[in-house]
Amino acid sequence: MKNGYFRIRNPFAAFRKTMLRRMLVVSLLASVIPVIAVGVSSYLFSSSAIRNEVDQANARVLKHASYSIDSTLQRVRSNALQMLLGSFFSSNLTELKWNNYSGFYSSLFKNLSSLQNSNAEVGQIVMYIAEDDYLISPDGGGRKLRSEEERSQLRGWMASSEAMNWVHEPFAFLPALSNGTVGVTLVCQVPFQSSEPIGLLFVQLAPSFLQENMTKYSVYEGEQSFILDDKGEWVVSSGGQKVPDGLFEKVREQAASGSPFSFRWDNRDYLVTSHISSFNGWTYLDMVPIRELNAKSRGIAVITVAIIVIFLLLGGAATAWGTRRVYRPIEHLVSLVRGGRPGDPLADEIGYVQTRWAELNRETSGLQAELREQLPAIREAYALQFLQGHFAHYTLEQLEGMFERYEVPFRQAHAVFVLTYDQSPGSGSRFKASDKELIVFTIKNIAQDMLEQSGGKGIAVNLLNDKIAVWLWEDTDDSEDWYTGVHQFAKQLIDILSDYLKLPVTVGAGDSAGPPHEMPMRFGQAAMALRARFWAGTGQVIRSGDTGEAEPKPYPYPFEIEAGLEQALRVGDAAEAERQLERFAVYAQETLRETERIRTAYYQLMTATMRVAFIMNLKLEDLGDPSATHIDPYRQMNECRSIGELNDWFREQLVKPIARKMAQRQNQEYERTLDIAASFIQENYHLDLSLDQVAETCGLSPPYFSKLFKRVMGVSFIEYLTAYRIDQAKIWLRSTELSVTEVAEKVGYQPKNFIRVFKKQTGCTPGQFREAESGPT
């Protein structure tokens, strides 16, 4: 049937390769996509609005529940604290118990009962008395501890650094709660904030209190509520379920944004709202099934789909009619370009025009390629002459014509900086000192490659004096911000060149970017900035504005820093001497800012340093270098090529050796002084000795003697005297039959103070020590 009369034709064949088909597709997409986007966005907006309302409501509920629970915890803690600070617990409980054993426990029972009766939320109250190993509560009376597990747990809380704290953990001596709930318990040391507590108070809240606060606000079917402690452990939930795995970590991730999030649990998606209490760090969670939330938006979804379908049908019809009318002028234009010649009706209408345009482009590209092969060398030669000021007599119009000829934009921001290197012996460079041309060639190529790789526009120019200039330009409205980027590029270039050459590379830059006709002036500023690298240092970007003013200033020598250095050397304080030397270097770099001024200042400082060595009877050979007498320090200083090298030489050759020698002398004097103090203490420890008496014996002021004693002996004067007296007391107790009172007098203590200090130092009383030393009879 291919050649038959009734041949079947494709009705869309005319649109297969024509411009009309493309226009129709674009028009349909332009009309369909906005309709679908509006429909989908309206549905998403309604769902999001419902979720936001529910989240805000749940957030208010959680805040209210948190406030209610936190208020109760604070009130219970306040009542417990009020009881512990009352007259009974503020007295000497140990003495009270031994004087009136039954009265002590009776008063204790009354106070605990009063605390429980005044707080309806409290479920259990238990008091632990460590010395009796006894538990007492208003409900269960008293009992001895039953297991070592209970004792171990209680010892841990007795030794805790926290005197009062709400905890969430099981206690073996408290009754177990239902549903596996651990319970919330207030643990207090008794007496409160005592360094030696005699017991612990446990106040456990009733589990029904937390359960009721989490269930009375539930609205949606399947809604779940949880309370987690600050470590993510389950405290209570509305239905008694354990917290889902991974929920607490998800809450912590979302805590910074403060927005709700979705969580899948037990094959259901939930909207989770959280609130973290500022009182104790508990996390309050509410989980609402998303299916229940979306029930209200399903009707909106049905209406939205119907609207989308209707508008799509209307938009498709209008697009087909409008596209055909727009295409008619294009069809007429193509027929005119063909000039009435026949063409394939199924071919692209503008194919002929594209073919002719491609032929012209190929011819043009060939000519441009030939020109560009010669352009880099020509443009570099022009850039060198321009930066050196050979076109200073040109007008702006003439310069713009020259820039256009060499393809350099004229109406843009321009900047220039100059690179150089410093050949230093022993630097480990891969080049020799005779490879200057090779080094300059390498610097130029690396700079040009980095410029092209970073997407910058500019040119690297060989200045024929072992330096390279980099001229950059950019079309920007903020030249200062762009110039900051130029500095970053220069710093990166320094790092790469220094790493490759193994030589220090320095960049000199002008004050700022500017119009192109100012580049010769900026180039001069950059060249001048390089001369300041002696005191400013190599391996960095130096701006001309950072090198100081051009007018000479008076010579402001820092005499106060020199005096501070001399004083530190006299007392052998190496750290202070080095700090003063660093201050001198910073001052010289920031204030003097000229090479000759800096050298002169260091000559003067060296004279002052040598004067200190002479006064202290130190010679150059005493400073650690036997050949120092044959070395000229002034010549060594002249060989330093930067302020950093100058400062390092000064520190290593003068400051450190002098300070070390003086410190050795000082330490010998300190040891002799403290030997006198120790002998005086050993001879008079039985007397009422004071720091002032011993300091006067050594001929020192009390504050200075105290600091010196602490630094050399490692302990304070009081600690040393106390330890020596207790050691002597042990000897008296071990080897004599003297009473504790007599021993106390022999070591310089009142009997009551002696027993307290002895127990604090040894962990036992003098009587217990004597009994332990004598052994079983």
UniProtKB/TrEMBL annotation:
<feature type="transmembrane region" description="Helical">
    <location>
        <begin position="299"/>
        <end position="321"/>
    </location>
</feature>
<keyword id="KW-0812">Transmembrane</keyword>
<dbReference type="InterPro" id="IPR009057">
    <property type="entry name" value="Homeodomain-like_sf"/>
</dbReference>
<keyword id="KW-0238">DNA-binding</keyword>
<dbReference type="InterPro" id="IPR018060">
    <property type="entry name" value="HTH_AraC"/>
</dbReference>
<keyword id="KW-0804">Transcription</keyword>
<dbReference type="InterPro" id="IPR041522">
    <property type="entry name" value="CdaR_GGDEF"/>
</dbReference>
<dbReference type="Pfam" id="PF17853">
    <property type="entry name" value="GGDEF_2"/>
</dbReference>
<keyword id="KW-0805">Transcription regulation</keyword>
<keyword id="KW-1133">Transmembrane helix</keyword>
<keyword id="KW-0472">Membrane</keyword>
<protein>
    <submittedName>
        <fullName>HTH-type transcriptional regulator YesS</fullName>
    </submittedName>
</protein>
<dbReference type="InterPro" id="IPR018062">
    <property type="entry name" value="HTH_AraC-typ_CS"/>
</dbReference>
<feature type="domain" description="HTH araC/xylS-type">
    <location>
        <begin position="675"/>
        <end position="772"/>
    </location>
</feature>
<dbReference type="Pfam" id="PF12833">
    <property type="entry name" value="HTH_18"/>
</dbReference>
